[in-house]
DNA sequence: CGTCTATGTCCAACTAGTGAACTCTAAGCT
DNA sequence: AGCTTAGAGTTCACTAGTTGGACATAGACG
């Protein structure tokens, strides 16, 4: 059914061109579409009619004060995308439309020991609730982005061994959710989605090469290269948590010694404070105490920053991104952690790479991953999903 | 004259598609073109005829032993590309055609202290000589790739401070050569070109993500991501030589301590052997002695390998390439250095990244950079260059 | 109220890709 | 040797889809 070089593909490309132009501009008249896309007025006329019949686009008789211009805009219910993010302690869901607007977003706690079935049950319910709340039709779902806190095998879609959600190992989250919702599901790990989220909506706007460092229970990085998530041939790119900082350092869960993670991740850092600050401390708590002036917590956070900075320096020397965005709970510490990171980067990265690097805190906090999932759904969809009938055809399930 | 969404643009795109397929494969039958491009056999038939009439492509009656397959290849005189590589001790030039064949190649020594003007004079002469030797017309030059042993500023094309060719700092090699030859010149550093060369002709064939590690006077890496050289926003990606292995190690020329370079590069390693093996030792000499069984040299090379392996492990964790190719003089040591590298990678990289990694010696030796320059010229050329008349039209200059 | 001008639509012309039928050649089998 | 077979390349009628130009439309301006 694929005809990569045929007229139909040309037509399809032209449809996408028009949709993209309209989406970027918000609303356009046909003549404007013709000018910006370079297509002839006749073609635009045909395409707009086709899109209008398909329900992708709305034509309002005469919104502008011109001669007789009919303004064309994406119909609000042309399609929606959904982002689902399984975190280590909670589940987040967001619903957005194709105009990059977030229509609804909600999170709820999720027990770490919950089974995958329980987790997906909860996710399905929450998705249903949010869709109901926004009042759109289920059949309008164009795609779902799914975030999981662990490595995903690119080929099989299987969740690798992850200590964060025990018992989920070996499941195929995308298939699972696809089976429940009946729409395409695209899955990626939390660091990659955080990177995507910050790039589209947060601190990474306008940058095409960035690294998103997520410090939580572990340390991971999401790499955006040339505007796209880079996963590597095996899908395990971005494992900054396991670069070696000290060959004779503490033993890491990965089996090596002195990984960045052993100096920065919650599971290794929190115990340092247990004797002085109690045993049920969380990273969040440490950050709060540090901001309130607790010297021990400040010291620990600064040390973590320095070590992260060493890792980031290596990253910079190798990849030379223009921006590094820090995410996860630790980002809330602001300058307390960014200062030491910048200092370390300045010391260990080659000057030409460090000079033009900006290190920023994430702007989205815990929302980065869900929004990234939304962005993933949007980007994987390709504007073409808007166009083939599948979206608007009657889908018997879920009525 | 531009009709961005019309059939003619589709036709053009299909022409390019065919040309690209042929160029990547060297030569294909029409049926193979149809399969790889996804176009129908009828379309391919038409396109091939058009290209043949235009002189872009040659059809050899029946080269393979098949049924009646006519093999299609880019016509040898459709255009030629030139690769120029300035090394630390010599200058290499290669001339190739669009069918990925190297028509002529030559190298001559170049004094380290030669001025840039002298260097370019020599390069121009050598290029002229080789073109004359191959007997093709100068007007057929489609592009030139240029390799320089130092950092190039992407924006300005200015050569950064390089200790390898002193006195060249601040020159603009691409403009210089462009002025002399009158054709587009694309410049890049030696590590990137080595990566490209090995990918197209050497140990990296068939791989889309690889890292080429060049160990010589310094240590640099060329990164190929998704089949293209990745330079990073600032153009300094791949500086593997300056990732920190030991915060309290020897002081590096970059100002930091314990950079990989201080454990692996010739300038730091050779002095270790001077007291025992004399002062005018080269890396080449050390490798030769090691192969002959000299225990000191073997030890040094193994140590170098281990350290490179540590750096490569970091690289793998971050980028997860499917192949690492070792280039430079050191690669001649074969297993003497590859063994320790693999061992180190196995120890320090996370297992999932290390498992699918292959570490190979470069297959091109000192030719990697010139051939990479050739490949750069080919890839930057853009396939459309072949199609619009400019290349075949009579260009008044250089007759 | 007539003219002007830009918008959107319709139609005939044209471009270019496709499937199906057809021819051609060499290999394999009997 | 002769027949069959299967893939390669070509031809042709058909179809999809864009375009330029003619045409209708409706507000703006004098």
Automatic annotation (TrEMBL), chains A, B:
Q: Which InterPro entries match?
A: ATPase_NBD, HTH_MarR-typ, ROK, ROK_cs, WH-like_DNA-bd_sf, WH_DNA-bd_sf
User: What is the residue range of the signal peptide feature?
Assistant: none
MF terms (GO), sorted A to Z:
DNA-binding transcription factor activity
Task: Pinpoint the HTH marR-type domain residues.
Answer: 18-68
Give the family per the record: Belongs to the ROK (NagC/XylR) family.
- Please give the name of this protein: ROK family transcriptional regulator
